[in-house]
Amino acid sequence: MSKLLSSVLVAALVAGLATVGPSPAQDKKKDAKTAQPVKGGVVEVNESKDGKFRFTVRDADGKYLGGSATGYATKDDAVKAVAALKAALATAKIEFGKKDEKDEKK
After folding, report:
1. What's 35's domain CATH number?
2. CA-CA 20 to 30 A from 50: which of 5, 21, 29, 56?
């Protein structure tokens, strides 16, 4: 019984310490050149295991928002794809699929 009680107390203590403040992994990303917090998020371009380059989009808190399923032959190709995506999103409208249209008519 005392082992169970001490286990519960240790778990509660650990849970309490976890809420004291953000861990380093939760700190906002900083711009590598200026060391200032990134306000609008970040697009990371990385080489994947297959030797192709893919990008990942994260918000200012580092939360994953999306990424490329397509692999690009070079970093420059991946950066061009990011630029094309940014241009498309700047003027894109939101549309809903056919299933959503049926639900709206009910």
Report:
1. 3.30.160.160
2. 29
**Which tokens is 67 given?**
């990424």
- Torsions phi, psi of 38, nearest 5? -80, 125
Distances from the Cα of 59 to the Cαs of 28, 78, 85, in angstroms? 9, 19, 16
Q: What angle do CA 66, 77, 84 make, to 5 degrees?
A: 55
Per residue in 8-18, pLDDT tens? 333 333 333 33
Cα torsion angle, 14, 17, 18, 24, sign? negative
Range of the domain at 47: 28-91
- Regarding pTM above 0.70, the answer is no
